[in-house]
């Protein structure tokens, strides 16, 4: 059992591929549905889940589109970099309420190529080519709360050859 919780959990480099994927999925959801980033995230090494507040349940076509776009972004072999902003600059550009309280005068921003950037304290891969293949394994919709939950996993690069050929993430 993993004893890491909270801040320490996101310093576990074994979670870096999943955590970086969370950023890509969040940007994809924002672009497709105009929603915010995930309202809840449970990131683990083997499988993870993200919850989104949406107006309606995504169609099967849209779910396939999410998977395709995320894999297309991963396949671009984008650099994952960080930079720092002052608290004031960061508050003007980003929603900071999910970050832990910090006495620091700066906020760390994680940038995935030109696709996504947001404040984050966690570890990430250096390049999206280190992620593998993204696969939505299941999803559910709660009509009362208008919450869509997606569960996903990553198929590591060495296993991609046995998966669908069109989803390979090898850099050319």
What does this structure look like?
This protein is of the alpha+beta class and 172 residues long. The protein has a domain at 6-79 and 127-165: 2-Layer Sandwich (Threonyl-tRNA Synthetase, Chain A, domain 2), CATH 3.30.980. It is 26% helix and 27% strand. The chain has helices at residues 6-9, 16-33, 60-75, 87-93, and strands spanning 40-42, 48-53, 80-86, 106-112, 116-119, 133-142, 147-155. It has a four-stranded antiparallel β-sheet with strand order 1-2-7-6. α2 (16-33) packs across α3 (60-75). The longest helix has 18 residues, at 16-33. The N and C termini lie far apart (38 Å).
Quick recap:
26% of the residues lie in helices and 27% in strands.
Keywords:
single chain; about 170 residues; alpha+beta; Threonyl-tRNA Synthetase, Chain A, domain 2; 4-stranded antiparallel beta sheet; 3-stranded antiparallel beta sheet; 4 helices; about 25% helix; disordered N terminus; disordered C terminus
Poorly predicted runs of 5 or more residues = 1-6, 159-172
> From the alpha-carbon coordinates, what is the Rg to the nearest angstrom?
16 Å
Please report the number of helical segments: 4
Number of strands: 7
Oligomeric grouping of the chains? single chain
Q: What separation lies between the terminal Cα atoms?
A: 38 Å
Measured by DSSP, the beta-strand proportion falls in: 25-35%
Shape type: globular
Structural class category: alpha+beta
Q: What is the CATH class of the domain at 6-79 and 127-165? A: Alpha Beta
